[in-house]
Design brief:
The chain has about 170 residues and is an alpha+beta fold. The protein is built from six helices and eight strands. Strand 6, helix 4 and strand 7 form a beta-alpha-beta unit.
């Protein structure tokens, strides 16, 4: 299995989106690239820890490739919105892709260039190596599965679209 990390605003919706994609074998919500060890949600919420709400996505490269996952990620975000996705604002809601190898970086850069070419404003999506990742409390894991009517900045149609894209790809 391979792994990549996506920060797409509130991690509840981002996680639920990636769970719809065939080839994604596991997801975990947490906090990436901050400046303290083992942060709590309450600490991250202050926007003083440097962390972004992030989803760890484990996937089977025999079934799905990284380029496809990064393209799908861009369908969930406004790449020109700094520290804000939907109604969620703050540095913890910034967007980013955090990689763990040079091989991943070259693939991600290709997608970033393609996505930027579609825009008239510059992208503000971070593209950085993963420095650290700490899992969020169990309460936050699979939140929208546990709370189907829970808050989400992403429209429900996007989840159905992701599931259908996976079917059409195969």
């Amino acid at each position: 299995m391979d792994v990549i990390y996506f920060a797409g605003g509130c991690f509840w919706g981002t996680e639920h989106f990636f769970k719809q994609i065939e080839g994604v074998v596991n997801t975990e919500v947490g906090f990436a690239n901050g400046n303290i060890d083992h942060p709590t949600y309450e600490q991250v919420y202050t926007d003083t820890t440097g962390f972004a709400e992030t989803v760890k996505v484990e996937y089977d490269p025999a079934k799905i490739d990284l380029e496809y996952l990064v393209d799908m990620f861009f369908a969930t975000i406004d790449p020109t919105s700094l520290n804000k996705q939907g109604h969620d604002e703050g540095t913890r809601y910034r967007t980013g892709v955090y990689y763990t190898s040079k091989e991943q970086l070259s693939t991600i850069e290709k997608v970033f260039a393609r996505q930027q070419a579609k825009l008239s404003a510059p992208m503000v999506v971070e593209l950085l190596p993963l420095n650290n990742f700490f899992a969020a409390d169990e309460y936050h894991q699979d939140y929208l599965d546990k709370n189907p009517n829970g808050y989400c900045h992403l429209p429900l149609e996007l989840f159905r679209w992701a599931k259908n894209q996976s079917k059409e790809k195969n």
